[in-house]
Amino acid sequence: MFAGKKGIVMGVANERSMAWAISCNLCKLGADVGFSHLPDKDERKKNSTKLQKMLDNEGIAAKLVAPCNVSSDESIDEFFDKVKEIYGSIDFLVHSIAFADVEEIRKPVYQVSREGFRVGIDISAYSLLAILQRAVNKNLFNQGASVVAMTYYGAEKVVPGYNVMGICKATLESCIKYSAWDLGKLGVRVNGISAGPVKTLAASAVGVDGMRNMYSDIAPLGRNIVTEEVGKTATYLLSDMSSAVTGEIIHVDCGYNIMGAFVSPEQI
Q1: Hey, which bits of 39-84 come out as E strands?
Q2: Measured between alpha carbons, how far is 202 from 35 in angstroms, rounded to an integer?
């Protein structure tokens, strides 16, 4: 399905991350995938080494594995200069990036600091616009290219514990829709995947275990998702099979989002 296709995945944190599940699925289907990672903090915590080991373990020979700090315009420019140099043009781009300080997430939203709010919106939402800007300005997108960004149901409804990140994801979803309109003129599609809770590094800050218990009780399929299911949906959205789909937020949550109330089988 992806033979001859090339693109970028931004936001692989570890083997449990949704971005990694998406990446592995794309590579198995023949895609040429390049990666960004967080800049290395120090010699003991090398994100570049960690990601390279993951790629080696899966037998993925990536042409591009480079740092990108999405809160820095200079870093984004440097990364996309490398994308242009190595690939020339791309067919897909995955945005799986979100951050807010854990102490800010745990606060009631009315107590979030101005700086905490700014950082959350900047990294979790504006970063999508920033990378799309570079991709367009450098004429990276091929006709029919597809962009997928990761979001969560807390953008639509109040999920206690998700707090300020819900506001950030709501902003991201609006960015997805407005970008779909603007980039549609270039033949580029932009969609979002709203995934159910999984045990990822990002989810650890918002009490994912309680969410997972609730989802498995309420969702029509009676279970939680696995990251591979997100990978499959992303594959569809990034492929030509979804050529008329743009501006959508696709839920991958075993149907949890359709439920208005929960009734136990004993009550029916």
Answers
A1: 65-67
A2: 18
Burial of 243 by CB count in 10 Å (0-12 exposed, 13-18 middle, 19+ buried)?
A: exposed
- What is the model's pTM? 0.93
Q: Which of 56, 22, 50, 18 minimizes the C-alpha distance to 37? A: 50
Contact between 24 and 108 (Cβ < 8 Å) = no
Residues 6 or more apart whose Cβ sits within 8 Å of residue 232? 25
Q: Taking the mean position of all CA atoms in its chain, how far away is CA 36?
A: 13
Tokens 């591979």, located at residue: 228
Supply the pLDDT for residue 205: 54
19's tokens: 């971005």
Angstrom distance (rounded) from CA 67 to CA 133: 18
Give which of 26, 1, 47, 153 is closest to 94, Cα–Cα.
26
Active-site residue list: 152, 162
Contacts of 78 (CB under 8 A, 6+ apart): 66, 68
The tally of CA atoms less than 13 A away on the side-chain side of residue 26 is 31
> What tokens does 39 get?
């800049």
d(CA 113, CA 102): 12
Helix axes 18-28, 227-238, angle to 10 degrees: 60
Q: What is the pLDDT of residue 42?
A: 60
What is the Cα–Cα distance from 198 to 9, expressed in whole angstroms? 19
Both tokens of residue 230? 């997100």
% pLDDT > 70, the chain: 92
pLDDT(12) > 80: yes
Rounded CA-CA distance 263/199 in Å is 26
| Partners of residue 8 on adjacent β-strands | 34, 93
